[in-house]
Write a structure and sequence with these properties.
mainly alpha, 113 residues, 96% helix, 1 helix
Length: 113
């Protein structure tokens, strides 16, 4: 009879330990699943951010390319304008020289009149 009571007590103790272990395992499993879900959600958010950044980066690169083309065009226009100004300055110098020759001729003719 004592042996039987001891056996019942041991079995009850084992059952209690097993239930406790099962609860602990279930708790760990639940925490692990919650953590996995959390990490998957965070992963998805990061992937979404990366997509947005890549899209923004592509738009930025396109805008930079467009602005670079505009800068090249404006630089070409500046060079054309410089050449035009240089040509105009040379024409002005030539006209002044011609005018001075004309004035010199007029001054030379005045005493003859």
């Amino acid at each position: 009879k004592q042996w039987y009571q001891r056996r019942v007590a041991i079995t009850a103790g084992n059952d209690k330990i097993n239930r406790s272990l099962d609860q602990h395992d279930q708790s760990i499993l639940s925490e692990s699943e919650d953590r996995e879900i959390s990490l998957l959600e965070e992963n998805e958010q990061l992937r979404s951010q990366i997509k947005r950044f890549k899209k923004t980066e592509r738009k930025s690169k396109a805008k930079i390319s467009e602005l670079s083309s505009q800068i090249d065009y404006l630089n070409d226009e500046i060079e054309k304008n410089k050449m035009s100004l240089k040509s105009s300055n040379e024409q002005i110098k030539a006209l002044r020289a011609k005018k001075e020759k004309s004035t010199d001729c007029d001054s030379a003719l005045i005493p003859l009149l």
